[in-house]
Amino acid sequence: MRLGRNACGRGTIWTVCLIVFVPAAFAQSKPGEWLTIKRADLCVTSGAIEKADGDRMTVEVPEMRAVAIVATSPSAEIRFRYGGATAEKSHLGSGQVRSQFGLKLRAQDPCNLVYVIWRVEPESKLVVSVKRNSSQHTSAECQNNGYTNIKPSRSSPVPSLKPGSAHTLRAEMKGQELSVYADNREVWEGGVGSDAASLDGPVGIRSDNVRLDFEYLTRRPVGHTPDHGVPCERTNSD
Predict the structure, then answer these.
(1) Considering the entire predicted model, what is its pTM?
(2) How far apart are CA 13 and CA 233, in angstroms?
(3) What are 177-205's pLDDT values in tens digits?
(4) What is the pLDDT, as a whole number, of residue 190?
(5) Whole-Å CA distances, 113 to 170, 181, 183, 226
(6) Less packed terminus of the chain by CB within 10 Å, N or C?
(7) Using an 8 Å Cβ cutoff, are 167 and 80 in contact?
(8) Mind spelling out the 3-state secondary structure of 156-171?
């Protein structure tokens, strides 16, 4: 496998990219090994992610959505510094204003994926949701429908975030079982169901009304992962 190159066509409201090869770091790594996702490895479908020093990235916009454009296992970790709330606020599809960010797992498309969300305001808590709309595959089709919050078999509170503080959020799926860690302490454990476990897609990230400086990691998938093109379409939200 070789280092990939992006071929992108840019329109007025959308962007399409085709990733032809798996990046060299993934090809040379061992299955299950933690690897850094770089800015070039992400398809940003809403908002913006800026490259910072080294492999770090920043988010300063009220709404951001992104997925990896390389094959990954359903495991992800974000090592972040919380920068506080954004000055401008975005509304969720429900009309609510919420400060939060989190990890996407098995992001098959914008309508079918697993979310691990760290809510900051109005309440500090960790929420695991499955968004499932089996016959719909675009944000325009499913909008904010199909969410189911999953109850853990056991859980504990996440730390309260203060501007300038550094933390980690890690999520790992093995079959139907999901474990979530905040600052290397398990804060959520439970099953997400066979339907969610059957979804096939990479990891990703989202944020709403928070500023972040972060590094993003995932595990290389176990087993053979052939090179294939991954479309990247600009949408309003997911």
Answers:
(1) 0.83
(2) 10
(3) 999 999 999 999 999 999 999 999 999 99
(4) 98
(5) 17, 19, 24, 22
(6) N
(7) yes
(8) CCCCCCCCCCEEEEEE
Q: How far is CA 193 from CA 91, 112, 138, 142, 147, in A?
A: 29, 13, 23, 21, 14
DSSP state of 70: S
Residues across the chain: 238
Rounded Cα distance, 211 and 101, in Å: 9
Spell out the domain ranges in the chain. Answer: 37-216
Question: 76-124, pLDDT tens digit by residue?
Answer: 999 999 999 999 998 877 778 889 999 999 999 999 999 999 999 989 9
- The third-level CATH classification (topology) of the domain covering 37-216 is Jelly Rolls (2.60.120)
Most distant CA pair in the chain: distance in Å? 46
CA–CA dist 45, 195 (Å, integer): 25
Predicted confidence at residue 94, as pLDDT, reads 74
